[in-house]
Design brief:
By secondary structure, the protein is mainly alpha-helical. It has 5 helices and no strands.
């Protein structure tokens, strides 16, 4: 019996629905207010540390602030990507649901034709052959749709030496930004003292 395509269709739509729910939940993360509050708190701590003469603690707070800003930017990119993924998954889910209904109809007609053939129905020696081909085509189309829905974009590899150099540049840039912010905080602290 050919019940496997219908079972795979049900599983495929359930899987697509779960992916859609996951993408929507990622897209709705509330972070803008939390990010502002966290950055303001770190700025306040850095100013307090400078006021207490603890440059090392002020530097640590500014470093953490930079890390948090970078993390917030990555989170915003993930949110935008999740919103796009949710839209794509909605389209795929609608296509899969329609295709599932079509496959179930074709499967039902195949089963009817198979029963008629088993009972010695009128017609050619293989009355269900045309329906069987339809089911096979529908199954192949469904498999292609499922493969397309789950495909991930290719990830390119980078040269290890180049990646290490880029990482070193990022560390140097971060240190320079920390030094600039500390200098600005010191200037503001000396100006208010």
């Amino acid at each position: 019996m050919r019940a496997a395509p219908a079972a795979r269709a049900r599983q495929g739509t359930k899987s697509a629905g779960a992916e859609l729910s996951n993408a929507i939940s990622l897209a709705s993360l509330p972070c803008a207010r939390l990010t502002r509050e966290r950055l303001a708190g770190l700025d306040e701590k850095a100013r307090f540390a400078l006021g207490q003469g603890r440059d090392d603690l002020a530097e640590a707070a500014v470093t953490r602030q930079l890390e948090f800003e970078a993390q917030a930017e990555r989170l915003q990119a993930v949110q935008a990507e999740a919103e796009q993924e949710a839209g794509r998954l909605e389209e795929c889910l609608a296509a899969l649901t329609g295709r599932k209904a079509q496959m179930e109809e074709e499967l039902a007609s195949f089963e009817v034709a198979q029963r008629d053939a088993a009972l010695g129905g009128d017609g050619p020696t293989r009355p269900g052959r045309r329906t069987e081909r339809k089911v096979d085509r529908a199954e192949a189309a469904f498999d292609r749709a499922m493969a397309g829905a789950g495909g991930a974009a290719g990830v390119s590899r980078t040269d290890a030496k180049a990646a290490a150099k880029v990482a070193e540049l990022e560390v140097m840039q971060k240190s320079a930004v920390v030094a600039q912010r500390l200098a600005a905080l010191r200037a503001a602290h000396q100006g208010s003292a």
